[in-house]
From TrEMBL, chains A, B:
InterPro entries: Adenylyl_cyclase_CyaB, CYTH-like_dom_sf, CYTH_domain. Gene3D superfamilies: Hypothetical Protein Pfu-838710-001 (2.40.320.10). Residues 1-178 form the CYTH domain. It comes from Methanobacterium spitsbergense. The gene is cyaB. Transmembrane segments: none annotated. This is Class IV adenylate cyclase.
Length: 178, 178
């Protein structure tokens, strides 16, 4: 699966939230996410622009845990990249397996995420601890699909939300390490 | 967790099954297991004596999937080693993540396993496709525990089962590749 995604830095969510309602977006849920990023023993993911992450989401007194691999970004304007996810039952043992395979935890990113749906888009409002506030618009595409059309639609949606600047290709991990 | 384990090659299970009943072992279940073993990009698990495996067990029309890391064997007489397991929801995506991290699937081992419990022991009767029939006796220990006592008990149990030879420290993966 390819994740076609554009992120923008914003000062606050007040206008964005009004505009989301105006264009018909539906708020699905709010999540707290705790992401631990790992680096590889045989190459530096900072250089290869890949990412490996264990995400924990507290949900009904339990933790939902997702292991995610992200490939390198595929164009110069967005964060479009290959993404593979698998849900796992236990963050601690998943982390121990990665560490025994010589992967090293590089950083932890914590955020609160409001998730909206609008047609085929997922729109998220992220408050990232020690980094700032961001809007992300995302759509899934097939591996060999032309991503220029979904990308154009994403930027049109940003315009409707009143956002025409502040686009950010760096990950929260990179922004946190500045 | 440390897996203290001894395996023995047998011609057939007839006498073993009789003796298992005689000493009070309880048959818990039968499983079909399909194990895909992976090798690492930064070292050769054949040399380091480690293992990384995705196990699929068909169960009630679904597949139970377990990712397992095994450390190097810790003594000269048994297969005692560190073992870390995590259940995952999807074997295909777990495999894709490993492959994108440059791990390579090395071999697939298929077997039918009868699982018995006897006190603190797990005793398994394995029919391994293209390899043969094996009895395994296993007990879990803590990471800093002296494993000589559980090992002694395991060999005493083998004696009660009428097995005093055929002990095998090589993995099914190694035996399959002979």
């Amino acid at each position: 699966m390819i994740e076609v995604e554009v992120k923008a830095s914003v000062k606050d969510f007040t206008d964005v939230k009004k505009n989301l309602i105006k264009i018909g977006a539906i708020k699905i849920k709010n999540e707290h996410q705790r992401d631990v990023y790992y680096n590889a023993p045989h190459k530096d993911f900072v250089e290869t622009d890949e990412a490996l992450r264990i995400r924990e989401i507290p949900e009904n007194g339990e933790n939902k845990v997702i292991l995610t691999y992200k490939g390198a970004k595929m164009d110069d304007v967005s964060k479009t990249r290959k993404e593979i996810e698998v849900e796992v039952f236990d963050a601690e043992n998943m982390g121990l397996i990665l560490e025994n395979l010589d992967f090293r935890s590089a950083a932890t990113v914590k955020k609160d995420r409001d998730i909206y749906h609008l047609d085929e888009f997922i729109i998220t409002l992220d408050t990232v601890y020690k980094v700032g506030k961001f809007v992300e618009i995302e759509i899934e595409a097939q591996e060999n699909e032309d991503t220029s059309i979904p990308l154009k639609k994403i930027f049109e949606t940003y315009k409707k939300l009143g956002i025409e600047e502040g686009f950010e290709r760096r990950s929260y991990l990179e922004l946190m390490e500045l």
